[in-house]
Amino acid sequence: MSTVIKAKHQRLVLIVFALVALIGAGLLAAYALKNQAAYFYLPSELAAKPPEAGRAVRLGGMVEKGSIRTRPDGVTIDFVVKDDKARVPVRFSGITPDLFVEGSGVVAEGRMEGTTFVADNLLAKHDEKYVPREMKDMSSAEAKAVIAETK
Amino acid sequence: MIAELGLAMLWMAAALAVLQLAAGVLALRPATAQLAGVVRPVAMLQGVLVAFAFAALVWLFLSTDLSVKLVASNSHSAKPFIFKLAGTWGNHEGSMLMWVTIMSLAGGFVALIEKRLKEETLIATLAGQAFVSLGFYAFLLLASNPFERLPEPAPEGLGLNPLLQDVGLAFHPPTLYVGYVGLSIAFSFAIGALITRDVGPAFARAMRPWVLGAWIFLTLGITAGSYWAYYTLGWGGWWFWDPVENASLMPWLAATALLHSCSVLAARNALRTWTVMLGVIAFSMSMVGTFLVRSGILTSVHAFAVDPTRGSFILGLLAIYIGGALLLFALRASTVTEGARFAVLSRESALVFNNVMLCGILGIVLIGTLYPLLTEAMGVKVSVGPPYFNPVSAVFAIPMMLVMAVGPVLRWREDTGGRITWQVAIPALVTAAALLVVELLFAPINLLPALGLAIAPGLAVASVQPLVGRNLRRTPLPIYGMVIGHLGIAVALFGMANEGAFSTERLAAMNPGDSQQVGPFKVTLQDIGPIAGPNWTALEATVSASYAGGTATVLRPQARTFANPPGNRTESALLTRWNGQLYAVLGEEGEDGRWQMRFWWKPFVPMIWYGGMLVALGGLLALLGRVARDVKRLVAIDKIAWRRERQGR
Question: Which chain B residues are within 8 Å of A36, Cβ to Cβ?
Answer without folding.
Answer: 384-385, 387-388
